[in-house]
Amino acid sequence: MHIFKFGGASVKDAEGVKNVVNVLQHKGYTNTLVVVSAMGKMTNAFEKVIKAYIEKDTELDTYIAEIKTYHTQIIGDLFADKNHAILFEIEHIFGLLKGFMLANRSTNYNFIYDQLVGFGELLSTKILSNYLNEIGIANQWLDVRQVIVTSDDYRDAKVDWEETKHRISNAIVKDQLYITQGFLGATKDNFTTTLGREGSDYTAAIFAYCLNAKDVTIWKDVPGVLNADPRAFSDTRLLTQISYKEAIEMAFYGASVIHPKTLKPLENLSIPLYVKSFIDLDAEGTQVKKGADVVPLTPCFVVKNEQIYLQISALDFSFMVEHNISNLFQLLDKYKLKVNLIQNSALSFRVCLEDKYTNFESFLEEIKEKYCVEYFKNVTLFTIRHFTNEALNSIEKDKEIVLKQISENTIQLIVK
Ligand code: ADP
Ligand code: ASP
Ligand code: MG
Known about the structure:
Largest sheet: 9 strands, mixed
Radius of gyration: 23 Å
CATH class of the largest domain: Alpha Beta
CATH superfamily of the largest domain: Acetylglutamate kinase-like
Distance between the termini: 47 Å
CATH topology of the largest domain: Carbamate kinase
Bound molecules: adenosine-5'-diphosphate, aspartic acid, magnesium ion
Structural class: alpha/beta
């Protein structure tokens, strides 16, 4: 089985959908499962809807209508029949969305978020699946929520691997083409969950692992994994091959080209991951597999913005050793703050973290009871793998460095 994943950028309009068909025709599509994200920036658009729904904003209906118009426009560009059945399917999906909003009594933000945000993936996969059928490419639309079973940690759901493997093996038969949604799962009670923003790559890896797939290809708007994000750096180089471990390090520190959770399931079964351009189908791209760290060996730059940097010391003048540190980590875990770097000295514990779930203010309130805290919001964490002095100088110059940490082949800098 081959697993393909197409992200939002690859299906942002009718041309994009037609290009997916092009990729499938070029590469072959029997025995293939295609994971698709929401079209373009639709997940952000749904986040706006969720906020408006929770805040009882009078613009709610306008935001929903904008999403509907976006999709119906794409349908209009793809299907000649102006009464095509896809329009009724889309209407039905919007009916389910409004039905949830009317019936819901929960005030749990994360729960509501997951029940609503995934409509983006339901819409994109319905459109692609119908279009493929329309042009004679038979395929099965698979509701991923029937097969990926997760915990009820809404917005950060954990996969129940045993149950998921069982369901996926039963649902997928050989020699077919499947179209399914990235990013989503469901609890055993059938409530929709999500795997975290940008989680569709991870969905591809979940299927690959459960099916022991031959390979996974994620189709991107870049030529592959580069030694830096081309949006932030000029003169980037294509990495033709990287190891799973290297990819994990780069993704974990912020190389948003691959979701960090994608790599481990693939590494465990030695399933190769190809990162390829959806524009230049025959270009080499990047292979992630066992072997050399990075080919060619070159410094790799990763940037993470919107970090918070804290310096914490104890109010009772005690040292920042085991007891205090373990207490702080319990609180970091409690408030779901993601730690990206730590450094410790006798009197001060320094940490760089990310506040994905907007819990920082509550965390701060609680730690201030016992600790003296100084912090800076909106700092940037630079990571350079396989650094050279020249690479380091290029980052350091003209910047105010708050902290620098060096290990064997990695340098990290926190910059104000
Ligand atoms: P998708 O459409 O699959 O969601 P993303 O936009 O999430 O794709 O990922 C592709 C983007 O990742 C690229 O456009 C690029 O700006 C960014 N990116 C960040 N780091 C890297 C890197 N090291 N190599 C290539 N692209 C990178
Ligand atoms: N649509 C989701 C997001 O934008 C998942 C993904 O694209 O990977 O976060
Ligand atoms: Mg993405």
